[in-house]
Amino acid sequence: MFTTPLRKLRIRIAAHPLLYRFLASPITMLATFLGAAMILAAFLAPFLAPQDPFDPAALDLLNSLLPPSWQEGGDAGYLLGTDDQGRDLFSAILYGTRTSLIVGGVSVSIAVLIGLFLGLIAGYFGGLLDAVIMRIVDIQMTFPSIMVALLIDGVSRGILPAEQHDRLAIFVIIFALSLSIWPQVARTVRASTMVQRQRDYVLAAQVIGIPSPLILVRHILPNVLGPILVIATINLGVAILGEATLSFLGVGIPASEPSLGTLIRIGNGFLFSGERWLIIFPGMTLALMVLSVNLVGDWLRQELDPKLR
Amino acid sequence: MPRWTLALSLASATFLSAFGPAAANELRFASQGDLVSLDPYAVEEVFTSGFLGNVYEGLVRRAPDLTIEPALAERWENVSPTQWRFHLRKGVTFHDGSPFTADDVIFSAERVRSGASDFKNRLPAGIEVVKVDDFTVDFVTKEPNPILNFTWANWYIMSKSWAEANKVAPPTKGGDTENFATLHENGTGPYKVDKREPGIRTTLEAFPQWWGNADKKGNVDKVTYTPVPNPATRVAGLLSAQLDVVFPIPVQDIKRLEAAPNVGVIAGPEVRTMYLSMNQWKDMLPGSGLEGVNPLKDRRVREAIYRAIDINAIRDRIMRGQATPSALMVAPGVNGFTDTIKRYEYDPAKAKALLAEAGYPDGFSMTYQCSNDMYVNDEATCLAISSMLAKVGVTAKPNIQPRAKYLESVTAPSMDFGLAILGTTPASLDSHIALNSLHMCPRTAADRPLWNKDDLSKIVAGKSNFGGYCNPEIDKLADAILKETDTAKRNELITQAWTITTNDVAYIPLHQTWAAWGIAKSAKVERRADNVFDWRHVTLGK
Amino acid sequence: MLFYLLRRLFQSAIVLAVVAFGSFMMFRFMGDPVAQLVSEETTLADRALIRQSLGLDDPLIVQFGHFAARVVQGEFGLSYQMGQPVMRLIAERLPATLELSFVAFSLALLIGIPLGVFAGLKPNSIITRVIMILSLAGISMPTFFVGLLLMVYFGVELAILPTFGRGETVDLGFWTTGFLTKSGWLSIILPAVTLGLFQLTFIMRLVRAEMLEVMRADFIRFARARGLPARRIHFRHALKNTLVPVMTIAGLQFGSIIAFGIITESVFQWPGIGLLFLQAISAVDIPVVSTYLLLVAVIFVVVNLIVDMLYYMVDPRLRVGAK
C-alpha cells in the first residue's frame, strides 16, 4: 500500500540535488558521521562495553569513584572512570546513549504516527472533526511537555504496582513525550494538507470519484512527508533532551539502569567534590548527540522546505 | 586542583564587595526543606519541630549533649509513681507580652491532643492534667511511666489568651479555613518570627524579654532561613559566603569544604538508626512471584541477607567514613543502648549456604522500596545493597521514589515491599518506643492475625512494624519495660529484648549516618546529635 | 467582531473546563496526600481522621463538584502541605516568575533580533555561519546542564554572582520586586541567561528566516530599484514586516518559558511558581497543583485570544472569511 508514495518520495529526492548539496556541506557531513557513529556505538553497546552496567552483580563498591584512566589513580580497565557504585562510566554512557536514543526515537515515531493520522483527517475533512481535533491540540499545547510528563509520571506511580514501576518507567516516559510532541506534528500536517486539498489534482481526483482514503494516501501523504521529516528530526533532539530533563529531575529512567540524564543527575551530586568526570562525560555526550541531530535537522529544513518554521 | 583553591581564596575576598556584608550578627542558614508550619502541633518532623524550638519552648528542653534540663518548668518531682508535679518558671512572657501561667499548660495539653495534632502521643491515653495553682501543674497517669517527660522537649507550650483572641482552632490539615497558628506564632522562646514567606524565606530576631537572656551563650540577634533543596546549590551558597550554616552537607563534599579557607565542617553520628525492614508477615512475598511462600519468614534467609551486606564497604565508599555501623535498632545516646550485642559478620559464602539450606540455592526476587530524599545518601546505599544481594543470588531491584510515594508504598495499609530502607529516631531517646512501635506484634489481640484489615485503625503497639515481626516474648518484655521504675532493672530488661530481636534477625540494622554541617569560619556552632539546630549556642564573629 | 470574540470566549471556557476536570481526575492516581502529611509514628486512626477532614473519602464526582464550586467563586482552598490559601502562595511567588521571565525574554529579544537581522541580511558571511552553529549548540544543551555550568563557573569558581534565590527584595505591597536592589539584579543574571538562551536562539532563527523571505519579496525589490538607501530598506521596510509574525509566534512561546522556568527555578532555587509546582507534585499537594495547572491554562488561553485578535485586526482576509 505504501510502495507508491515511497516511490514518489524517492523520485522527489532524486529530482532534488540533495546528495550533491549534502556533499557540499562539510558540517552536515561531520554531524551525520558523528551521529551515525554514536548510534552505532550505542546499539553495539553489549559488544563494545567492557561491563554490563545494568547488572548489579557486576558492580563492585570497592571500584567506586575511580578517575578516568589517564588521570592519577585511574585504572586502565575503566576508560572514563567509575561512578559511586563502581559502575564503569564508559559502559554506562554507551548503554545510556542507547536508552536515550530508543526513548527519543520511539516517542517521536509514535508522535508522528498519531499526528500524521489526525492532522491528515483534520486538514482534509475540516468541519466539526477538524474543530474537535484542533481544540484537543490546543489543550495539549497549553501544557509544557515537562509538566505533562511530570503529571503522567505521578499518575503512573499511583496506578502501577511498585515492583513494575521501574521496569515500566521507560514506557511511561515514551508515552509522556509522544503525548507532548504529537500536537505539533498534527498542526504541521494539517496546515500542509489544507494547502494540498485546494490543489487542482486533488480536486480532479475528487471529481472522478476516487475514495477519500486513497486520495489521502496516494496524493496528499507524499506531499506532506517533507515537512514531517523536518519536524521529526527537530523533535528527536527535543525528545532526547526531554528524557534527560525528566531523569535529571528524578522522575525518569531509574538509577539502576541509567540513561544519560540519570547519569548527569548522579554526577550533579559530585559537582563540588572533584569527581567532575561524572557530570562532564555524560553531559558532553548528550550535547554532542543532540547537536548532531539538530545540525542534520536544520540542514534538512533548509533543503526541503525553506519556508517552514 | 590548585586553581580551585585559588578561586576560593579569591572568593572569600570578593564576595563581600559583591553582596555587601551581612547585618550585625545575622545568622544566615539553609537546609533542604522548609518548615511545614509555625503551628507546633501540626507535624512531627525533626526539622520543623527543631526550628520551632527556637521560637517556642516546652516544659523541659534538651541540652547540647541531649540530657534533659529545665525550661518552662523550673523543677519537677514525683508525688507518687503515677503523679508528676511540675513547678513552672515565673516571670516568663510570651512574645506578645502576656505572662506565662499554668492555664497555658492546661490549654496546650488540650490542644496537643485535639484535631489533627501530630503530637498526641506526648500525653498517654487517660492522663489527667490538673492545675494546682498558677505556677504548679500535676500530671496524673493511669500506670507508672518513668519516661513521661522524655518526649516533652518538643511539646511546646502555647498561649491560651493569644489562641482565644485569635480563634486558633485545633490543628488542621487541608480544609477550607486557614488556621491562624500556621502563619503566626506566639512562643516564649529566644527568637520571634519577623517575617515568614513559606518556601522562600523566614526571618527572625532575638526576643529581648526572653527569660534566659542573661545566660545566653551565643550572640545571634537576627536569623534568616532559606530552604535550598538542591544540595549542590546549598554547598555553592556556603562556598560563595552567601550562607553561614548549611546542613546537611553531602558526604562527598566534606573534604572539599574542609580544604576551603573560609569554611569548616562539623560532623558526627545522628541518633537516627538506618535499617532494612523485611516483610515477614505476608503469605506471599511481594515481587517474588512465589505462590503461597514467603522466604523471609525463614530466619535463615533473613540472616543470609544480613550477612550478604558489606556494611564497612558502604561506610567507606558510599558514606566516605561518615557512618557508624550499628548492631542495634537504637543509637548510642539512646537509653538502653548496649555495645555487648554485635553485628552478624559480613560473609557472602555463609549467606549463600544459608540460602541453600533454607531451600533457595538459586535465590529469589522481591520488591525493594527505597527513598531518595529522606536520608543521607539513601539512594546510593540502596543501590549498593542491591548489588551486594545480587552477588548471593537475591534479586532486589530498587524501586526508588520520593518521600510521599515511598511512604505510601511502605507503610500501612499497603506495605507493598519485600525489603525497605528506613530510619528511626525514638522521640523519647529511650529504647521503649523503638521496641513498642517497631517490634511488638501489630495486632489488637493475641488471637488476631497480624495487620488484620479490620483492625488496622486500632493497632497501636507495633504500629510502625510494617515488616510484621512478631515474638510474644518481646510483647511481654516491652510492657514490663514501660512500667518498670527501677532504672537498673529496666535497662537489663531492655538488653534482654535487644538480644532476642537480634537472634531473631527481626530487622537488619545498618548504621547511624553522620550529619555534616557546613559552617563559615566566622561562626561557632554546637551541633546536636539529633540534628536540632539551637541558635542560642551560635556565636558569630567577624 | 463581537460574534467572533464571543465564539472564541466560549471555546476558551470549554478548554478551561476540560483542563480543570482532566487535571482533577489525574490526582486520584497521583498518590496519597495523607502519607505526606503525617509522620511514621502517626496511627492509622489519626490518618483516617485526616483523610476524612480533607474530604478524600467522598466519591470522586462529589470532590470535583466541591472543587469546581469553589473555583468559580475564586476559592482554591488551602495547600495540604502548608495550610495556607493556595491563591496567596501563588500570588506571593508570581512576581518572582514574572520578573525572571521578563528579564529572560528581554535578553532574548534584545540579542536575538539584531543577530537574526544580521544573519538574514548576510546569509553567507562566515560570522553568520558561526552564529548559526553556536545557536544550535545553545539549544542542544539541556537547560539544567547550562544552568549548572554557569553556576559552577560564575557562582563558585569566580564567585562573582549569587547561585540561588532572588537576593534582597523590596515589598511594594502587592508585588515583591528584586529590581530595586543590587543583590536582586545580581541574582537574576544567571537564571535569566539560562532561561533566555533557548528563547534567544529561537527568536534569532525566526527573525533570520523571516528576513530571508521578506528580502526576496517584490516590494523590497521595488524599493531597491527605486534606489532607496540600504539601511532604510533593511530597517524601515524589511524588519518592520518581519516583526509582526515574530512577535505573535514569540508570544505563543509563553508555554515554553513556563516549562523551562520550572527547570531553571529548580536549579537556582528561584522562589517562583515553577518551584512551587515541582515541590507540590512531589508532595502530592493537590490544591496547589490543580490551581497551578488552571493558572497556566488561563494564561495560555488569554495569550491565544490576544494573538487571535491581533491577527483579526491585521489580516483583512480573516474579517471576510467565516473563520
Helix content of chain C: over 70%
Instruction: Describe the sheet with the most strands of chain C.
Output: 2 strands, antiparallel
- In terms of DSSP E residues, the strand content of chain B is 15-25%
The name of the CATH architecture of the largest domain in chain B is 3-Layer(aba) Sandwich
CATH architectural category of the largest domain in chain C: Orthogonal Bundle
Fraction of residues in H or I helices of chain B: 25-40%
Structural class by SSE content of chain B: alpha+beta
Overall pLDDT metric of chain B: 89
What low-confidence regions of chain B span 5 or more consecutive residues with pLDDT below 50? 1-22
Number of domains of chain B: 2
- Stated plainly, the CATH topology of the largest domain in chain C is called MetI-like fold
Q: Kindly state the number of beta strands of chain B.
A: 20
Q: How is the main sheet of chain B built?
A: 12 strands, mixed
Q: Quickly count the helices of chain B.
A: 15
What distance lies between the first and last C-alpha atoms of chain B, to the nearest angstrom?
28 Å
CATH topology-level name of the largest domain in chain B: D-Maltodextrin-Binding Protein, domain 2
Give the neighbour order of strands across the main sheet of chain C: 1-2
Overall form of chain B? globular
CATH class wording of the largest domain in chain B: Alpha Beta
Low-confidence stretches of chain C: none
